[in-house]
């Protein structure tokens, strides 16, 4: 059964959840599909935060369309159809491409003064065209989670290691091109830290 949220979004069904909230597939204005993340806590939301988050645009980021505040706080963002990296079995070349896409998305966020703070295999999606899209870009900011730009880069390095190990076994050494990307990512984390 569908539920309405702020008279603009009709929640159709839950997609997934974690400690920060539940993400629903929803019908937005004019029936456009969106992902609506209903937060478990009710943070104080300032107009400046909403303006900042909805202004960030990049091909590797799920665009935040709206932040809804009533008896709960919800984030409406582009629905990204595809698969997360949670169980992805990627080659080294594919993982390098993922690293490039996530790095581009993080750079766009950081240039606007936003930190992701919740980067994980669950927040990186390979969409139906094979493009890399970073989701949950507003959660850490609205919940004021701890984290810096350097920690976002460290999280990317950790994500690359985790996805490689999950797909290829703990003891299989990554090829040089992936080790180079990992080393570059760690250098960014050190430079920003």
TrEMBL record:
Superkingdom assignment: Bacteria
Q: Which SUPFAM superfamilies match?
A: Protein kinase-like (PK-like)
Q: Which UniProt keywords apply?
A: Kinase, Serine/threonine-protein kinase, Transferase
Record's keyword annotation contains Iron: no
Positions of transmembrane segments: none
Q: Where is the Protein kinase domain?
A: 9-193
Annotated InterPro entries: Kinase-like_dom_sf, Prot_kinase_dom, Ser-Thr/Tyr_kinase_cat_dom
* Pfam families, per database record: PK_Tyr_Ser-Thr
Q: Name one GO molecular function term.
A: ATP binding
Q: What is this protein called?
A: Serine/threonine protein kinase
Species this protein is from: Actinophytocola algeriensis
At the highest ranks, the source species' classification is: Bacteria, Bacillati, Actinomycetota, Actinomycetes, Pseudonocardiales
């Amino acid at each position: 059964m569908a539920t309405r949220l702020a008279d603009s979004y009709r929640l159709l069904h839950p997609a997934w959840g974690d400690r920060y909230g539940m993400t629903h597939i929803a019908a937005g204005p004019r029936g456009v599909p969106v992902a609506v993340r209903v937060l478990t806590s009710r943070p104080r939301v300032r107009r400046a935060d909403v303006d900042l988050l909805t202004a960030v645009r990049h091909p590797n980021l799920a665009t935040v369309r709206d932040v809804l505040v009533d008896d709960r706080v919800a984030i409406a963002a582009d629905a990204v159809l595809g698969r997360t990296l949670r169980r992805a079995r990627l080659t080294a070349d594919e993982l390098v491409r993922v690293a490039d896409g996530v790095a581009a998305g993080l750079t766009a966020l950081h240039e606007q003064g936003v930190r992701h703070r919740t980067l994980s295999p669950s927040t990186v999606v390979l969409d139906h065209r094979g493009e890399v899209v970073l989701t949950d870009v507003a959660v850490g900011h609205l919940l004021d989670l701890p984290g810096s730009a350097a920690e976002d880069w460290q999280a990317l390095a950790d994500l690359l290691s985790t996805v490689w190990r999950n797909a290829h076994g703990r003891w299989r050494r990554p090829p040089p091109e992936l080790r180079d990307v990992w080393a570059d990512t760690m250098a960014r984390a050190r430079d920003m830290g």
